[in-house]
Structures are given as C-alpha cells and as structure tokens.
Amino acid sequence: MESHGRLQGSGAWRFGVFSAITGLVSLVLAALLSSDLPAEVRTLISGCALVGVGLTACISCRYRATRSIGLRRRAYHLWSLACLSAALGNLGLMLNGAQRDRQTISASDITLLATLLLAAAGVITFPLARRRGTDLVRMLLDGVVVGGSILAVVSIRTWSQVAAMDPVVAVVNLIAPVIDIVVATLATLLFMRSARGDRSVLGATAIGFTLYAISDLLYALRLVGTGSFELGTPVDLGWMAGYALIAWSVANASTPDARQDEGQVESSPVIGTATVFTVFLLAALLSLVGVEEVRVNFVSGVLWAVVLLAVLGRQFFLVIDNEQLRRTLEQRVVERTRSLRQVTRQSDLLVNSVGDGIYGVDRFGLITFVNPAAADALGYEALELIGHDAHATFHAPAPSGVSYPADSCYIVEAIRDGLVTSAEEDSYLRADGLEIPVEVTATPLTDDGATLGAVVVFRDVTQRREVDRLKNEFVSMVSHELRTPLTAIRGSLGLLAGGALGALTPAASRMVDIALVSSERLTRLINEILDLERMEAGALPMELHDLPAAGLVRTALEQASVLATEAGVALRVVHAEGVVRADEDRVVQTLLNLLGNAIKFSDPGQEVTVQSVRRGSFVEFEVSDSGRGIPEDKLDAVFARFQQVDSSDAREKGGSGLGLAISRSIVERLGGRIWARNNDDGGAAFRFTLPASLAAPHASPPRTAEAALQARDRVPDPAPAG
C-alpha cells in the first residue's frame, strides 16, 4: 500500500510537471505563431514542432509496445506507426512549402489520412472490458452519428465551395476531421468501457484527438473557404497538443492485469449517449461559427437521413440491450427466489424435526420463532409465544418466588455481550404452571458484526435428573452401608499395625500397612461421596463470614506446600485482593482441590500460580498451571462426577474424580461460578467467583448460604483465560 501510494504521488508529480511545461511551451508557440515574424519563420517553427512531437509520440508508443502483451501491444504498435506517419507527412509538407490548396492533392495528404486510419485502428484494437453483444454495434453507430453530423453541417455551410473542388481533394481533406471526431468519440467510449488501468491512456487519447479534430476542422473550413492553407498559424497548436498528450499518457501508462479486463463492464449507457451528443453539438457549434445563411441540398438531406437512421438504430439496439438485461435480471431473481424458498423450506424442516426445543429472539428479547418441540415442552401453541418476552414468559423464578434479574439472563448476555452459553442448567415454567428442569445453550445471532438476536436450544432433563437422583441415592446408601464395616476394618488394621496381637513379621507388617492405606483411601472416597450428596441436597450447613482473599489463598498454599515439595513444583501467589462473603473451610477445600490437580498434572520444575482479583461485585480466584492442559471438548465435563481427562489418570495420578464436582457444588452453593480454560502458553487455568463483601470484615454479621444463592445468577460470565 505504501509503495502504491508513492507511485500515485510520483504520477501526480509528473503530471504536474508535464502540464506546466506543456502550458509554457504552448504559450511560447502561440506567441510566436501569432507574432509578426516572417511567414517562412513561422512555418519552419510550426513544422519542426509538429515533426518533433510526432516523433516523440512515436517513440513513446514504441516504448510502451515493447512492455505490453496481447491486444495492448498491437494497439501501441499501430499508434506508433500512426505517429511516425504523421511526422513524415508533416516533414514532407514542410519541405514542399507547407502550403495546401483545394484543387490538388499531395503525398502528405495521403500520409496524414493514413495516420488517422492507423490511429482509429489502434483505438478499436485496444482491449476492452467484458462487454455485451450490442456494444460494438452501438459504438459504430455512435461514430456514424458524429461523423455524419459533421459532414452534414459542413455540407450546409460550404456546399458551394465544396462543389467547386476536385471530388478526390474534397473527400481527402473533408474526411480528416470526420475521422478525428470518430476516433475521439471511440476513445471516449472506450475510456468508459476499459479497465481501470487503461483509463488514463484512453482519456488523454480522447482529449488529444479532440484537439486534433478541432485543428483539422478549422483547417478544412479555411481550405474550403479561402482555397488554401499553410502552416505557421495558431491552428497548428491543436495538432501539437494532441501529439504531446498522447505521448505523455502512453509513456506513463500502466499494464493492468488481464483479470481486470474481465471484471469491468460499461458503467452506464446514459453516459455514452450523453458523450456522443455532447461531442456532436460541440462540433456543430464550431462548424456553424460565422454562417449567415443555411442552404439544405440533396447531399445534406441524405447525410441527415443517415444520421437520423443511425440515431434510431442506436436507440433500437440500446432497447434490445436493456430488454436482454431485464430478462436476465428477472431470470436471476426467479432463480434466487426459488433457491431461497428451497433453503428456507429445508431449514424449517430441520428445525421442526429436531427433538430439542429451539426458539429465537430479536435484539429486544422478544420471541420471533418457536419450533414444535419447544412449544410442546412449554405447553403453548407456537403462535402464542411469538412477540412475547422469553425471560418474563417462561423463565422460572427463584425458590423464594422472586424473578431472577433479566440482566443476568443468558439471553440478554448473548444479545448484549455476544457470549455463548453452553449446557447451562435452568428451570422453565410451563403454561400449566409446572416447572421443568432444562439444559440450555444460547448463541448470539450476528450479521456483519451486528447482533440481531439470539437462538436458544433447550432440552428437558427431567428424566435425567430422576436417573441421577436414583443413582445418587444408591451411591449414598451403599456409602452409608460401607462406612460402618469400613470403620471396623480400619480399627482392626490399626490394632494389628500397633502390635496389639504381638509383633508382626516384616512381610506381614508391610501387608497390613498396604491394607490400612487402602482402607483410608476408601474412607476418603466415601466421605467425599457423602459430602457431595449432602451439598447437592442442601443439607450441608455453611457459615458465611467476610474473609480476606489473601488469607484464604495463604492458608490453602500452606496446606498444599508439602504435596508441592514432594512433586518438585513451585507455588507462587501472583496477586491477592478482595474480601469475600463465604465459608472459610469450604473455600480452602475448593482451593486445595484445584491446587492438588494443578500439582498432580505439572512436571517437576514447573510452577503453579494463584491469584484473586476483584471484578465488580465478585472476587475471581484463579489457579493456573503449565501442564498438559485439557481438551476443549472436556472443559465442562471435568466438573462431573468420576470424570478424568484420561482414563489412565486414575491409575497413574490417583484421585477419585470427585474433587472438581465437589468444588463446583461448593462454589455454586456460595453463589458463584467455576469454569476452566486453557492458557495460550500451555497448561490450564481454573477460575471461580465468589460474592464480594459489601462491608468491612469486622462489621459484617454472618449470613446463610441460602442468601448467597439469591445472587448466583448475577455472577459475571467467565472471562477468557490468559
């Protein structure tokens, strides 16, 4: 981009220098050609200037041809030959006295006429952008309109003088300005149909041929009116300026990629039409200067008839072109509509066939669509829910009967913050007043970066909850039944290990120690299962106090230091701030569970960091390690019961798979949330939030865990790890 800007800047600078030099030289030449210098001197100045700029344009076109390919190369070669022919013709005219009359024709006239034909061939050869079938016909008709108009006007103005001329001389001298106008018109039309990189060349070429045409037209009028013409007048400036413009534009032309030619089309036929008739009117006005009487003759009538037919033909082809475009657009609209209907039908079929409930809301939280499964699960007709606020209509209130604040609803978070909620548990209220447990996934609906609403997918988990309840009851019953005999086993093994029945042999002592360690591990597992059961049942009491986060972190690190030392892992506190309203023992238990996991999955020499940060009305704790991390599809599953990242972890690393499940239950009982994320530089980070204290620690009376649950849905959503 920077180099492109430099190229544009240098191009503008070169154009400014060229314009200044051209303007200065034009003023000097105009002064000289308008002065009282002898006619021979003025003729020599004009002839030399014409030959010089012609050769310069020839060299410029030749230079650009060697650096181009395809049709551009051929067009530049034709222009190079045209400029060389013009230089030779002007040189011959200058050597022969630089005079012309209306009764004879010279080799210079034929050479200059060939120049115009070569220039026209170069313009037509120039590569165009992709065009429609009638474009070329319209371009030719445009040339006929302009050229025929010029001939008609000239015939009206100077028919008596033209009739007195030799027919061949008249054709040769009068056809030149017509060809100039046609070439200028074609170049202008090609300018609008060309690739972006070619427009500077064709635009300057169109201006150059227009100047050339004006000089040729004035020359023809003077030749017809006075009977002779000689070089050395200000009329010659048009030819010089035309050559100079073509030379400069070609020398500074770029070589566009061929793909640009395919991607460009004519901008608008209206522009082409306006251009054609503007050039025509300009030529007509210049031709009519000084006309006192208009006499229409047979030739003029024929020419005007041809022009009129060309105009009608041009409009006819334009109508055909527009009709083809209309039909093509209509066909595309029909096909696109059919495709959209098919896609919509397929989407509706898919949504309606899904067993899970799906509903969508707009950016105001109002329901816009509901699939049959959602309407059936909620006990409504689908149309009954359209236009209603989803949160207020069927989101169940808290156990106290107070509605949860809408700002903390996952629908509002998806719309407002663009957050995706996955597998969140919630309760929905059916139309008959029955409350059903659901598992929800909410996703923002975005288009070009703007959030238009959200899509919510939910599943009735009543049966799963019942299965979980039965399973938990069974595990609890078995744990209770195992606890009593296990206590007797531990006691007996303790007596044996203590020598109550006499000294044991080394082999027997080792076996007793193994049995005692295993029984203690089994006791811890049973205690964890029972604790988890009591917490989920709400039977485990919690005493809430205002606790400094730094003290909780310090206590947890002290208890985990022995395990960290044995594993060769360093523990470090990054930052600890905030005061939480929580149960000290349970928070420390949660931190110990997270620290134990981090130490267990860290290699010797690595570091485990702990920090706490105040975030609004909550304090966020984080335990981060540099271990192997957690697969993305298991970041939520690790908090379930008996879950391990790898099935071999239970054997190699130890643990029951209940630590994270217990931690989640503790945090949620205290009114917070817990989640896991992978660090960008490796390892995993476990974070959980707890309600921050609103008063000084010594002035805050304890409160119950049930009060903390009321604030649970106001916990901020998980922030990105790292």
UniProtKB/TrEMBL annotation:
GO MF terms, alphabetically ordered: calcium ion binding; histidine phosphotransfer kinase activity; phosphorelay sensor kinase activity
Entry superkingdom: Bacteria
Catalytic activity: ATP + protein L-histidine = ADP + protein N-phospho-L-histidine
Alphabetic keyword roster: Kinase, Membrane, Phosphoprotein, Transferase, Transmembrane, Transmembrane helix, Two-component regulatory system
EC number assigned by the record: 2.7.13.3
Domain PAC: 422-473
Domain PAS: 350-387
Main subcellular location: membrane
Positions of the Histidine kinase domain: 477-694
Pfam families in UniProt: HATPase_c (PF02518), HisKA (PF00512), PAS (PF00989)
Required cofactor(s): a divalent metal cation
SUPFAM superfamilies in alphabetical order: ATPase domain of HSP90 chaperone/DNA topoisomerase II/histidine kinase, Homodimeric domain of signal transducing histidine kinase, PYP-like sensor domain (PAS domain)
Region of interest (Disordered), ranges: 695-722
Gene Ontology biological process terms, A to Z: regulation of DNA-templated transcription
Annotated localization: Cell membrane
A GO term from the CC aspect: plasma membrane
Transmembrane segments: 12-32, 44-63, 75-98, 110-129, 136-156, 168-192, 204-225, 267-289, 301-320
PANTHER family xref list: OSMOSENSING HISTIDINE PROTEIN KINASE SLN1, TWO-COMPONENT HISTIDINE PROTEIN KINASE
NCBIfam families registered for this protein in UniProt: sensory_box
Name listed for the protein in its UniProt record: histidine kinase
Annotated organism of origin: Friedmanniella luteola
